[in-house]
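Good morning,

Attaching, inline, the backbone tokens for the sequence recovery test we're adding to the shared suite. The designed sequence is right after.
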């Protein structure tokens, strides 16, 4: 049987009468980079919350590397960064990194840490400050640093680029491509279609509780007979027939 990094099987998520995810099915191969896009409220964070068992499913099933997502073991190969990340305010950046690396059973290697800080363009002196003094972008960067140092197989990020300055964003994208070459997997929500185009093997467009498209950015552009991903996305979410237009999965 094929082992997927992530597998959603007819996942439905409902908050009272609000059907956020109606019947979501998709599979992600190990080594793939997947961008999850959709309008505000489309259910991107809900998909991530369901995946990580932060929110219960109304029905359906999820597996991570073949393990049912409600089992703790299913999360052993992944690391997650939420959209609004703030480490415990009383720790210094360095203490936070030490603590999180300890949880990942990884030694704190000053050289490794400094090179990740350079990628994220975070001043090394910031590590000595308590995180309550950090800006939103700095908190995001220290969270990303902890994830990138974790040596995990699968990175789950909810809008990782939000709050990052252009230099850090450009560096991070290059770094992620290097992780891709090493066979790592990435599943992230974003509003930045350029990033999806640059990084992703496939894009999931979520709309009206369903997956409207799941395929490569190039396939998306071709399917909608337009010139770029932004136009394709607009066409895709403009299709309000309720019929999924994805030919790959559903
Ligand atoms: P996105 O991440 O795409 O902006 P979300 O997944 O955050 O969208 O939200 C999708 C929908 O689910 C929204 O209508 C939101 O109001 C609703 N929702 C999310 N979390 C809850 C919750 N805990 N209780 C009730 N409704 C929720």
């Amino acid at each position: 049987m094929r082992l997927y990094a992530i597998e959603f099987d007819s996942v439905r998520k409902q908050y009272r009468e609000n059907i956020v995810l109606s019947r979501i099915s998709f599979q992600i191969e190990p080594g793939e980079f997947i961008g999850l896009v959709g309008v505000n409220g489309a259910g991107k964070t809900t998909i991530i919350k369901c995946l990580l068992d932060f929110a219960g499913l109304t029905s359906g099933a999820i597996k991570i590397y073949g393990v049912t997502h409600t089992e703790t073991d299913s999360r052993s190969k992944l690391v997650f960064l939420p959209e609004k990340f703030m480490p415990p305010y009383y720790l210094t950046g360095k203490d936070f990194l030490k603590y999180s690396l300890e949880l990942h059973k990884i030694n704190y290697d000053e050289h490794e840490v400094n090179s990740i800080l350079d990628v994220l363009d975070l001043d090394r002196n910031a590590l000595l400050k308590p995180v309550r003094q950090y800006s939103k972008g700095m908190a995001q960067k220290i969270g990303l640093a902890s994830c990138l140092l974790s040596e995990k197989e699968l990175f789950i990020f909810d809008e990782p680029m939000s709050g990052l300055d252009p230099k850090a964003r450009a560096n991070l994208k290059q770094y992620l491509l290097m992780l891709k070459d090493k066979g790592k997997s990435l599943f992230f929500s974003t509003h930045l279609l350029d990033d999806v185009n640059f990084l992703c093997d496939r894009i999931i467009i979520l709309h009206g509780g369903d997956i409207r498209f799941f395929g490569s950015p190039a396939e998306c552009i071709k399917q909608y007979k337009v010139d770029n991903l932004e136009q394709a996305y607009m066409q895709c979410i403009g299709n309000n027939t309720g019929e999924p237009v994805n030919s790959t999965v559903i």
